[in-house]
Specification:
2 copies of one chain form a homodimer. The first copy, chain A, has about 220 residues and is an alpha+beta fold. The first copy, chain A, folds into 2 domains: about 140 residues, Jelly Rolls; about 70 residues, Orthogonal Bundle (Arc Repressor Mutant, subunit A). Chain A has 7 helices and 9 strands. In chain A, the strands form 2 sheets. In chain A, strands 1, 2, 3, 4, 5 and 6 form a 6-stranded antiparallel β-sheet that branches. In chain A, a hairpin with a 5-residue loop joins strand 3 and strand 4. In chain A, helix 4 packs across helix 7 and helix 5 crosses helix 6. Chain A is elongated and about 65 Å long. At the A-B interface, helix 2, helix 3 and helix 6 of A face helix 2, helix 3 and helix 6 of B.
Chain lengths: ~220, ~220
């Protein structure tokens, strides 16, 4: 796979910069289960996933592995090159979840181009922002543990009571019923909507996929 | 306060870029308790804290506010300008924790300079990475709830048994004693070290601030 396919900003790099990245990159294959990067390894470098699947996780105190996010074909793993950013001070473990074929760009080679190229730097920020968003979603899952189930069950019950999948109810009132603040109800309903389970409009919550909602509630 | 003081990379911007940022910035004062930014507000812009203190938080399902991080004098708040990055898809609430005096740079003005300046883009990445690290630390606090107390108590007990503050013990053995994986023990011991409570060396954990450790354990 051409290294250029991993970088939407490739055409905005100079030919010298393109050549520097291409010539620094090397191939690596990893077998399912292999730990590619953790706190004890040196800076592994930027990983470009040509095929297979990687997983980034941290450990709970009991040793349970908490998956932060997954990386698929054409994804780019930044945190295996965290040494390249002074302010990134946390450790994640990167493991091959399936046999994977990778291209590796050593951190210092990447850093050098990022230092001079605004497009590459901005692209790298976007990659970090996407991972940050994944992790914030995870935090909310932990903080709101089982709130999704409770809310799904509540909506199904209301629909049964009203005899209609279109509920005339505000997020505030749902919150009052359930003992949760309005903002939390709104966030979760928006998530339900993004998953196609409900449709939201002013003062109305309409159930659009009862089966999915029921699976969640049970 | 000069806007330049907020940007360590200021001298690496062109005079045109410096002028564009300076002229776009405006002043704003906020009173203690005021919500400056949340999911319902439009893009508030980049906030530069001249004085006072801000707090970024999210809500738990029960409506408990979970502080993600704080911002002090000379800090820069990126997430009030999250509209400027496509991949930043989460909402935080920013509140004035003390009366504060701010400079605000509208998101589109900042974005324009960031798009063309690698130094500004890389600096912005570092700011994001620092916040990301804060949030990862919070996740670990949630996941490892009370592990710090248990570990502090364990170290004090061992020191009492051995009659010495310098314990000859590996992280692995501590983990076996406590039913926690080695990595988790190592992370927490490193945190204790950064707080000056212990000193780590190969095969040894030396208690350097027994009082602080005791406060934690109790």
């Amino acid at each position: 796979m051409e290294i250029s396919t991993f970088f939407p900003v490739w055409e905005r790099l100079s030919s010298r910069q393109q050549a520097a990245l291409s010539s620094a990159a090397f191939s690596r294959t990893v077998a399912r289960g292999e730990i590619i990067h953790n706190a004890d390894t040196d800076c592994t470098g930027l990983l470009l996933v040509e095929s297979g699947q990687l997983r980034a996780f941290i450990l709970s105190a009991e040793g349970r592995e908490i998956t932060l996010y997954r990386l698929f074909e054409r994804d780019l793993c930044l945190f295996s090159a965290s040494c390249m950013m002074r302010s990134l001070q946390f450790d994640v473990t990167i493991q091959a979840e399936k046999d994977a074929s990778l291209r590796v760009i050593p951190a210092e080679s990447y850093r050098k181009i990022m230092d001079e190229s605004a497009p590459l730097s901005n692209f790298t920020s976007e990659v970090m922002a996407a991972r940050f968003s994944d992790v914030m979603w995870l935090i909310e899952q932990i903080l709101w543990k089982s709130f999704d189930r409770r809310l799904a069950a509540f909506l199904l019950e209301e629909a049964a009571i009203e005899g209609s999948p279109a509920l005339k109810i505000t997020h505030e009132i749902i919150g009052n019923h359930m003992g949760n603040p309005r903002e939390v109800v709104t966030r979760m309903l928006r998530y339900f909507q993004s998953e196609g389970m409900v449709r939201l409009s002013r003062g109305t919550v309409e159930i659009t996929d009862e089966r999915a909602l029921r699976r969640l509630a049970e």
